[in-house]
Design goal:
With 525 residues, the protein is an alpha/beta fold. The chain has two domains: 141 residues, Chitobiase/beta-hexosaminidase domain 2-like (Chitobiase, domain 2), CATH 3.30.379; 374 residues, TIM Barrel, CATH 3.20.20.80. Helix content is 36%, strand content 18%. It has 17 helices and 23 strands. Strands 10-11-16-17-18-19-20-23 form an eight-stranded parallel β-barrel, surrounded by six helices. It has a seven-stranded mixed sheet with strand order 1-9-6-7-5-3-4, with helices on one face. A two-stranded antiparallel ribbon has the order 2-8. Strand 12 and strand 13 form a beta hairpin. The structure holds acetamide and zinc ion. Zinc ion binds next to helix 10.
Length: 525
């Protein structure tokens, strides 16, 4: 008899009759079952209990209570005593893994570490949004595919306030992203206070005006600027850490240096005539690689940077460095001769290697864009593959670590539809949510090469993104697709994602996040 009922249930379920009852979590958990048994009713006053001595879990529980108040109108209490909603650690689980169980006796979230519990609670936010306060009995087990799941925000082309950056971090946390790559220096603005070099923010954080319109050469005539004080940086780093997100700072070198050169002209080959750029693009004003004073400057800047950012990885840019000034500069040419370098590409490698040695001597590791492969790369550097996947593939074959962020799938400044006229500004290109979803970080790699891929990242450059509404439009829902690649790479299913994303959009609304209305273009698949 029981067997017959189960068979009928299975048949109904397969027919979609109970489709709405299945947990709709993004990224897709490894296991998520809802067996129709008695669950748990959350009400005001329900206690979330944490182990008595775990301050970190206590803070995590407090965050969860805040989300529930905002997203579900529920006022939960945090307690060290036994409550029906229990958070706990199970060291037998992987560091970021979790188990979530709902039954008539209560709700249990177990994590390998506090990060795992935090991710379990991200899933729970989605479940409460889906089912309301009456949770059905269910069981979820989950663990990410990749250890590095990043998102980059360019705060140079446009500046975002600390509160805006925190909202960005909140959105990353909801998607179980664990790295915030903070692009802090570029031609159009230097955005981080460096105490030893105050001109970097007095001069370099401000430009005379900004490009008007999309890909036009006309400017608005309005001074534009902004930077983060070291206190604010510490605040952002701590805020991210509470959400189990490591902030990876990017200090660009040797290219994208106009703002630094405008602040301290002796950093450039010509020694004068620099300005903070007002147009977008790639500029020939780069750090002089011949003068030792450039390296002294870099090391003193990085000394302050590593004191602010506990991240093991420090990003040094390395992309888009025109070499024409190095060809003309006697100091750069002398360096090439004295170091026995073949050409200016090898001079760029010399620059990056020298900085890498300094970082390594200070206990940190270097990440650079895939141009750092040109002219030779050290074995210990990590490549961020952006000009397609080629750099990441070459890195993995050379047994260097790589992070896949190809512009073909991960550039969130690109348009999301094939008809940009219906969209807010993008820089060009086409990266729909379906394209992000289709990213294969292991494309062309053998089993032996795969372990060199640390993970994936989305990049949000902001030439044409001047405010939070536009930023969120570029980020969502594409970030949901990136999160599923990073967390659930081996269990992707476009049809299932489509359904679950429908639920997630409701949670975005509850959080006040703006999400692009475009969805799937079937021609992408
Ligand atoms: C890049 O998009 N220039 C890394
Ligand atoms: Zn030079």
């Amino acid at each position: 008899m029981k067997k017959t009922i189960l068979l009928v249930l299975a048949a109904l379920s397969a027919a979609g009759a109970f489709a709405a009852a299945q947990p709709a979590v993004v990224p897709q958990p490894r296991l998520a079952v809802c067996d129709g048994g008695e669950g748990l009713q959350l009400t005001d006053g329900v206690r979330i209990s944490v182990p008595a001595d775990n301050v970190v879990l206590f803070r995590v529980a407090e965050q969860f209570a805040q989300w529930m108040e905002r997203e579900a109108g529920l006022r939960l209490a945090v307690a060290e005593s036994d409550g029906p909603l229990r958070l706990t650690l199970d060291p037998a689980l992987g560091a970021e893994a979790y188990r979530l169980t709902v039954g008539p006796d209560g709700l249990l979230v177990e994590g390998g570490t506090e990060a795992g519990v935090f991710y379990g609670l991200q899933s729970l936010r989605q479940l409460v949004s889906q089912y309301g306060a009456a949770l059905p009995a269910l069981h979820i087990e989950d663990e990410p595919t990749f250890a590095y799941r990043g998102t980059m925000l360019d705060c140079c082309r446009h500046f975002f306030t600390v509160d805006e950056v925190k909202t960005f971090i909140d959105i990353l946390a909801l998607h179980k992203i664990n790295r915030f790559h903070w692009h802090l220096t570029d031609d159009q603005g230097w955005r981080i206070e460096i105490l030893r070099y105050p001109e970097l923010t007095r001069v370099g954080a401000h430009r005379a005006e900004t490009v008007l319109g999309n890909n036009s050469a006309a400017c608005d005539g309005k001074p534009y600027g902004g930077y983060y004080t070291q206190r604010q940086v510490r605040d952002v780093v701590a805020y991210a850490a509470e959400r189990f997100i490591t902030v990876v700072p990017e200090i660009e070198m040797p290219g994208h240096a106009s703002a630094a050169l405008a602040s301290y002209p002796w950093l450039g080959c010509a020694g004068e005539g620099y300005k903070v750029q007002t147009l977008w693009g790639v500029f020939p004003e780069v750090f002089c690689a011949g003068r030792d004073t450039t390296f002294e400057f870099m090391e003193e800047v990085l000394d302050e940077v590593i004191a602010l950012f506990p991240s093991e990885y420090i990003h040094v840019g390395g992309d888009e460095c025109p070499k024409e000034n190095w060809k003309r500069c006697p100091e750069c040419q002398r360096r090439i001769r004295e170091e026995g370098l073949r050409d200016e590409n090898e001079l760029q490698s010399y620059f990056i290697h020298r900085i890498e040695r300094w970082l390594n001597a200070h206990g940190r590791r270097l990440i650079g864009w895939d141009e750092i492969l040109e002219g030779g790369i050290s074995q210990s550097a990590t490549i961020m593959s952006w000009r397609g996947a080629a750099g990441g593939i070459a890195a993995a074959r050379a047994e260097n670590h790589a992070i896949m962020t190809p512009n073909t799938h991960c550039y969130f400044d690109y348009y999301q539809t094939k008809d940009p006229r219906q969209e807010p500004w993008g820089i060009g290109g086409y990266v729909s949510v379906g394209k992000v979803y289709a990213l294969d970080p292991y494309d062309q790699l053998t089993e032996a090469e795969r372990p060199f891929i640390l993970g994936v990242q989305a990049n949000l450059w902001t030439e044409y993104v001047a405010g939070m509404a536009h930023l969120q439009h570029m980020l969502l829902p594409r970030l949901a697709a990136l999160a599923e690649v990073g967390w659930a790479c081996d269990r992707r299913d476009m049809e299932s994602f489509r359904v679950r994303l429908g639920e997630l959009r409701r949670l975005y609304e509850r959080c006040g996040y703006r999400c692009a209305p475009y969805f799937f273009d079937r021609t992408d698949e």
